[in-house]
Amino acid sequence: MEKPSFExxxxxxxxxxxxxxxxxxxxxxxxxxxISFAGGLPNPELFPxxxxxxxANAVLKESAxxxxxxxxxxxxxxxxxxxxxxxxxxxxxxxxxxxVVITNGSQQAIDILARxxxxxxxxxxxxxxxxxxxxxxxxxYRPEFCQVDLEEDGANLWQVEDWFLKDDLKLMYAVPNAQNxxxxxxxxxxxxxxxxxxxxYDKFLIEDDPYNEIYFEHCFPAPxxxxxxxxVAWTGSFSKMIAPGLRNGWVILPDELVPHFxxxxxxxxxxxxxxxxxxxxxxxxxxxxxxxxxxxxxKYNEQYQAMQEAINRFFPGDVSCTxxxxxMFTWLTLPAGISSVDLVQETMKKGVVFVPGNSFYTDGSxxxxxxxxxSNAHLPEIEKGIKIIASxxxxxxxxxx
Amino acid sequence: MEKPSFExxxxxxxxxxxxxxxxxxxxxxxxxxxISFAGGLPNPELFPxxxxxxxANAVLKESAxxxxxxxxxxxxxxxxxxxxxxxxxxxxxxxxxxxVVITNGSQQAIDILARxxxxxxxxxxxxxxxxxxxxxxxxxYRPEFCQVDLEEDGANLWQVEDWFLKDDLKLMYAVPNAQNxxxxxxxxxxxxxxxxxxxxYDKFLIEDDPYNEIYFEHCFPAPxxxxxxxxVAWTGSFSKMIAPGLRNGWVILPDELVPHFxxxxxxxxxxxxxxxxxxxxxxxxxxxxxxxxxxxxxKYNEQYQAMQEAINRFFPGDVSCTxxxxxMFTWLTLPAGISSVDLVQETMKKGVVFVPGNSFYTDGSxxxxxxxxxSNAHLPEIEKGIKIIASxxxxxxxxxx
Lengths: 401, 401
What we know:
The structure is a homodimer. By secondary structure, chain A is of the alpha/beta class. Chain A has an eight-stranded mixed beta sheet with strand order 2-9-8-7-6-3-4-5, with helices on both faces. Helices cover 45% and strands 14% of the residues of chain A. In chain A, strand 6, helix 9 and strand 7 form a beta-alpha-beta unit. The first copy, chain A, is globular and about 65 Å long. The model of chain A has no long low-confidence stretch (mean pLDDT 94). Chains A and B meet through helix 1, helix 3, helix 4, helix 6 and helix 7 of A and helix 1, helix 3, helix 4, helix 6 and helix 7 of B.
């Protein structure tokens, strides 16, 4: 009996999901002790391991019966309430726990929002470049991607408005704070302007915000959600704030959307992980979160500064870079004619890996860019790795001339 | 500014998901101290709470760095290996850890398999009745449901074969062990026959098996997977074996399907919850699982026997019921002309709740059936609750005459 060939049976939606170069390259990098600027891993030295263990012990002593049983699909109420209060307070917004749903990282929120809104062929406005995980999640519903340029202060809103004129376009996806991959943040005025456009044209924004708490000097401006609350789903994540292995994030929704999101979510996995929800809620209410966050912010700033310094020192002058004010990534533009896909092949021979820019575009362009993660390498490795990339780049520039 | 109306923006796929009467009724039941036969909750007295706490403490001492970081999307290798070895051994099958993927309960496996295979309009063979969570997950991809009768020894395979003649039908969904809602299990010979049909017609089966370890007297026969390994994805779950709040299940896939499943899964939530995977693996390798499972099996059998006895005692003779050999549910057929939807309205006034049968059909039929869960009520409650349902039923029968 021949094996069935699955290729021809797979759904059109599935076949539209692009592969993750990041995941593929991570498998290589993890096996071989590379200096890796490729992943998007938080610095594990900053994980509050002892505190998490104490919290796990405490909640399993107090609430094992609840933790171990099935639970509501919206998530653990005290945790949803903590989230609502923190961000209502931080940005002077009206947010209630009833609008907060706990998800498996903010990734699941993106997937479920895509499921809720996208019919095959619907337009989705997306930044150029954009977060690869979102491109994958959205692609699984076969939208038409409507790309807009990402400028130093956020998306080009003229282009956004042009797309918003289309009737069969419902959705925009954006990461206004310290975007992955570019490190770019929206200015306060662009946030307000985008909110006006959303309301005027009756469009919906997925405002993906996993890096909200990871800023270097100044807290990020208020989210677009604040100025167009019924037109925005605003996600957040404990992955960068505490630890990604706990796999808990959230989304803050317009009231009217909550029951729909909840029903769509039930069909995917019934309810979020109880143990980690209880652990996180206990951790947040029994520890000094601000102190922890300050340590993360300080460390990531140090790592970023070390990378920026090395870039300035080793790279040729015609390489330009963004100036992130937080997050975990910086973004380079190579001199004309140099492909980052070729470059990474060379640097991997020398034990250094990063992600070529085209992974973050929906149209295959972007080879002139590279994404560099700075949160998961020691300072000496950062200097050494950047030096190697610069040296390989210079060799390629000579051969191009 | 008017609120945007989401109704008209929601995707066709989303709008095809039926609501969960079970979830809705559970919200009512939980609030009001009902005697509930409605949910599908394991008995919380059987959760190994202390052992789970010890395991959480141990793994967070030993492996916090790994647990708290992002991880592979396939899941924790030692846990996948444990699953492969247990079921290879139990049924003399060839299963390797590379074919096992950890999911958020088996529910997520169903959702991802549906995503992989179903294009709008594709036929999906489904038992009548079937598991509501699967109906919801599959509906989100807008298949044509092709119903087959569920007989005392499993699906009617003549009907299955008739449907398999269709070209645009790729998939069947079935729960061959102690099915939710009916409690019915497939005979060994029907499993083998179904395997032959799958191979002959080159169709694919989602063999959903959350109750595999929850049998009363005899272990369930080998799965369909054993006889048609390349045509079957076989799911399992720790929800009934240990505790559902840990939200970990798995799926065992044909080799060729693994990378596709993995990619589709990445786009939904990146990777499964690390903490609970490590906790479960530690629990399984440091405790006497067989002793725990025997306690669960004994307790559920007691609860089932109490329910069956009460049914025999209080219900009129023209109510028939299935004879589950495991699992958590039994299934009644009411006398002609009586609607379980009307009946539950009456029993709820008396503080007893169950799920009317039509929730488990894709065509709205099934009102003559009721699903009774026996795993989450104390023995005296079981007797009292069944007595109340029988009494309300008798009143309705009088008024029908």
